[in-house]
Design a protein that fits this description.
The complex is a heterotrimer of chains A (about 180), B (about 150) and C (about 675). Chain A is of the alpha/beta class and about 180 residues long. Chain A is built from 5 helices and 7 strands. Classes of the chains: A alpha/beta (about 180), B alpha+beta (about 150), C alpha+beta (about 675).
Chain lengths: ~180, ~150, ~675
Amino acid sequence: MMRYLMPLAIFMVLAVFLLIGLTLNPRQVPSPLIDKPAPKFQLNQLHEPDKIMSSEDNLGKVWMLNVWASWCVACRDEHPLLVQLANSGIIPIYGLNYKDERNTALQWLKRYGDPYAISIVDTDGKVGINYGVYGVPETYVIDKEGIIRHKQIGPVTVDSLEKTILPLIKELQNQA
Amino acid sequence: MKPRHKKLVMIASGVTALGVAAILVLNAFQSNLVFFFSPSQVIANEAPIGKSFRIGGLVAEGSVKRDDGSTTVHFAVTDTAETIPVVYTGILPDLFREGKGVVAQGKISDAGIFLADEVLAKHDENYMPPEAAEALERAAKAQRASLAQ
Amino acid sequence: MIPEIGNFSLILALLLATLQGTLPIIGAARGIPSWIALAKPVVQGQFVFVLIAFFCLAYSFISSDFSVLNVANNSNTELPFHFRLAATWGSHEGSLLLWVLMLASWSVAVSVFSKQLPDDVVARVIGVLGLVSIGFLVFMLFTSNPFDRLLPAAAEGSDLNPLLQDFGMVVHPPMLYMGYVGFSVAFAFAIAALLSGKLDATWARWSRPWTIIAWVFLTIGIMLGSWWAYYELGWGGWWFWDPVENASFLPWLVGTALVHSLAATEKRGSFKSWTVLLAISTFALSLLGTFLVRSGVLTSVHAFATDPARGVFILAFLVIVISCALLLFAWRAPKVGLGGKFDLLSRESMLLANNILLLVAAASVLLGTLYPLIIDALGLGKLSVGPPFFEAVFVPIMTPAIFLIGIGPISRWKQMSLPALAIRLRWAFGISVVSALITPFFMGEWKPMVSFGLLLAFWIIVCAFVNVKHRLNNSGEGNLLTKLSKQSRSYYGMHCAHIGVAIFIIGVTLVNSYETEKDVRMEIGSKVTVGGYVFQFNGTSDVVGPNYKAVRGEISVLKDDQFVRNLYPEKRTYNASGMAMTEAAIDTGFFRDLYVALGEPLSNGAWVVRAYHKPFVDWIWFGCILMAMGGITSITDRRYRLKIIKKESTAARVAEPEKQAEGTPAAVASATTKVELATETTKV
């Protein structure tokens, strides 16, 4: 009997490794920017192109930077969540409009709702590079001292919001 | 031959086969595992010298230069903290672009230049340049599935 | 409306699958004829509903209904009709639906072509298939519904991945899935046998044709995938040891072991529990492949959308199905008993050695594939295992197995004499060694590895001829033709498949040793010589395709100053996704391929051009086709056909299996001569 159980035992060991493997992301390269100061930028605003927004304007508050684009299908999926989050007033969300065209971007916001306190325009993607943007969407949580505390690769989900992002925001907001 | 001996011979040959296979595997592992390092790790001298490894990151904007009259390309790979210059001879993959994800395999030279013998453009759903919109759609689907729950 | 019908059909199919997975099995266990009788109508009903769902999805794609998320993500109005149809199974969701459709088709095929089997066996087999079907239907409905709506509807779809817009991609996945899914039939037969406790030669004979068909599909599927990678990826490689390729190769290796082990079980009643274990393992590896591809635990060029929820689901399914199967195995197998005894030198021992080698090879490929995952799971860093690892391990393990291909079919069941075998094969060995040593000179350069590879290939071929000759000598009176026609199809099938392996080895050996690859900068009018051919670059022109724009290069190929032909490689940019694609131009020949791909544009109309000369590369795929043809030939064997006809006339009667097995001299893939069989029976 024992030796007939061997295949099962081998299979179980394999299954355990697969399960652990499932919790890891083979592509995840730890972002070198976590716990480092957020790269500074000064960019034109989307709605009012003459105005400039600087990253330093946000010192003293916890804020979110969401990288989005109208060509990005996944952004459309996370968008309702962002609108909801913005409406709740928990945290101001700033949008980095990445490699996009102004008109289509504005139309897109009109259609799907605008959760952003301010949207800024990164047409050539240089600020995106500074932030290590691998793709769109990506979302950063930045604390009162301007330090990146979290980076969400890919769309924000209910799960990631409830389990990681919201608790983190609460903790950061409670810091002096 | 007695059945007991027969069984012994069979078990012995089975064990030998497995043993030989294990030696082959270990031997091959020793020389053929390719580790992955980020440019920051390379700068911090964590990467092996004289051994092949992979670096990954973004192709730095404006860094791609082709030699005239040859197929050698120079570019830089950055993880936004550090940047490593790379030299490669040959044809770059279709998805290779400035500002896009890339993985290169090769060795680091004494001068700190990465001599790549293989360049792979990253191509997965977390890597979503406008040019590869198809990748996003897949992430969108994944997202939708998790929302549905 | 149509997508809702599809969705509803899937739900009905799930309900029927639940019936199919429970009632017949319980009925067979308790002996309730009416529940047993339910199996066939229920499985046919399930098939009809899955088929309706599939047509609904296909219709949504063809009519470009972008209110369906799956269509919006994977199709486009500019996409030509045949690719819109193929896009039906181009995505994760669609390919799952195709998978379920195939599972239903196989189940229906079992219900239709198993009139000769006892009803309770059929009921159990269909029941097990129903359980598998439940798993996949639930997976599809809850995590990857192909009919999910996108509201508001998209104005335009975002196109099928350009890599998939190709004929190879239209046919490769269905073939591969037919193979994967087909092994679930072998699995179902094994489980049914364990459930009933009747694990004997009859069982082996019933499940054997199904296993071989599945193996044939898998062989063709892998071959098409390799061929597609060769001409579509623009690198000229035909196998990359990529995790997803390995995922399809693993069930193939173990499935090959299963096909051979079934032969021994059918003919001699040996290895019964081993064969069952192989059937379970093959199916487990098919499921593992699905898990690896769709959960995103490994990085691969092929990876589908990755979603942890999906990964968890498939892993849970895999664990439930396979642990139950292995528990059942541990419970029942000890009672199975051993089969016919055999000597250390016998065909059984050869088959056993072949099985072990195939399994060891599969285990090392599995280890190499999962090693990055294991290391990551243990927190030891991120790494990748490259092709050199697989080559360094796989080739030495397979070498003795390939050597056995020559000897196995010649050796006798139960017992054989080594000196007699040596005498019979000494000429074969001499001929293969000499020709393997000489042949490389004709290729221009002698290399030891080439001779070695060719030795293995020639050995298989010469041994096959020795075997056939010997067999004809023992086939009684008559001229050559009558003697040839006396042999069973399964006998020819076996040799056909084995010679396919030889052809495959020749292709691999020669292309690896003698191919020439050049990446060169070419200006208009400049020339480069590759493998004796002169490639002249005549410049590029712009062309417009149905859904892409392309730069098309013109390259004239000359040999000895004679014009051979023009090649037109393209660099395409697809409108919807903006993705760039290299479209290689290939001149296919019996002895060589000429392969040209455009790299990237340089100044003054010059391009980096990749020019390859690949001798004998097509033999690789031709070898695979021969293997598949061998499989098909052997299942058209008289014994299988006769049985179906006979059973249809006397459907109620259950044949006496053991007697029939002994009385069928023309064995399937592993045939012995009549004389040998006669001596064996007297010894028994």
